[in-house]
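Many introductory courses stop at the sequence. We go one step further.
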Amino acid sequence: MSTAHFRFHGRLNDFLNPERRGRQVAVRFRGAQSIKHLAESLGVPHPEIGQVRVNGRDEALEKITQDGDSIELHPAANGYSSEPRFLLDCHLGRLTAHLRMLGFDCLYENDFDDPDMAEIVHREERILLTRDRRLLMRRIVRDGYCLRSLEPLEQLEEVILRFELTGRIRPFHRCLRCNHPLEPVEKERVLDRLEPLTRKYFDEFHLCPACGQVYWKGSHYERMLGLVERLKTMRADTQRVGATQPCS
């Protein structure tokens, strides 16, 4: 039997049992076990892990653990190098709508199963958003985040901070129903689809060319703008450490 000593930093402690948080954890194992495998045996999904230090040296998660190794794991750095494209699991419909409202590409179906989602994020190079840590642990999932909160607006803040999206917000650019980019449309083209008061008080409209949904700046518009402005002023150092609700 071999033993390695793990220490998890920052928000990685959210995934640990309370008695293991913020302290060195001794992990006993047999045979050839990777750091990734042992970390996930403690409940920490590999997409949440960034820098790996073994005996004071940078290493990869796939490194085979040796008896006596001292391993430090840091959370994945905030931010995302390319344009983020998300896939959300079937429990995150309201978060999907919020992210689409801010202009982000979000794939969502309420009947996706776990193997489908893992395959899609791998094939389409999407970021998986979920509260199911076991789904994040699937081998082919590379990029993902386990939401700590159960509240959609708090989840939205988590995603904006984790992936540093404030500078990429493009509100009212994407269809809330089907995710397709919207296009401006002349009022006359959609006049027969509008309620009398909408015809009277509004002149600027957008149309989803995929599903045909019509959008205008109704009473919800100012509330959405207030949310957008608040999100744009959030700082990354407000990220909470410690789960609002433990991930499943």
